[in-house]
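[step 3/7] fold_predict: job queued, chain A
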Amino acid sequence: MIVSISRRCDIPRFQFDWFMGRLDAGFVEAVNPFNARQIRRVGLSPAEAEVLVFWTRDPRPLLARTGELNRRGYRFYVMVTLTGYPALLEPHAPDAAAISDAMGELAEQTGPRRVIWRYDPVFLSSLTDAAFHRENFSALARRFRGKIRRVIISLYDEYRGAKRRLEALEQSGGLRVLPAADREGRLLPQARGLLGDLAKIAGAAGMEIQSCAGAEDLSPLGIAPGACVDGGLIRDLWGIAAGGKDKNQRPHCRCAAAVDIGRYGDCPAGCLYCYARP
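[step 4/7] structure written:
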């Protein structure tokens, strides 16, 4: 069993002591986000939780206890979201330089394939237009040269709660959201050009670049379709055969089946575009 920690909230950043306590207990109760009465007891021993997949904006609490996780026999890898966006979009994001340093240190301790950079979502706006992303992504990628081997990207996907928040911000004059695709979902030329440039920047920094849950094939731009909960990576690292496609994710998501132990609405980071905010 693969345990996802977590798509729904940033447990490594805000609740890592709680999580380590659940490892001591040997289990956690995961509540179905669509049916609160449906509760699953998830075993957390190394034999039951064969691989832990962490999602976070701040790996420093995890970095401080990496040795403990290793001594206890846990297999894990970490995906760190680092975008460097303005505070208007990410009001409580940690310092980008500190996070990139922590990612590099974590990669030294665990191996470069076990720390994955997520530049996600690629959000186009009057504050973060294509020129911003080219410069911003390039600056971050340079920090990871020789340290991180993979970056995952995806264009902003509109969710109802995020749409309301961003529309309110537009009405107040805070920013203007820029479209990335037409009404049929086809990428506009400016978005296509930007993604192609991000692929070149990643390649120049020695990183493979993958897309996340996208409907359109970006392979011609140099961006392979990827999976965050990556069965192929898990097999390569530990010889463990992951299950099939996770049927609980979006149609174009390629992730292997995993049990997510987070809860929606528990993350205090307050990112405006976040799908997990109520």
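[step 5/7] annotate
Residues 91 and 270 are 6 Å apart (CA to CA).
The chain is about 30% helix and 20% strand.
exit 0
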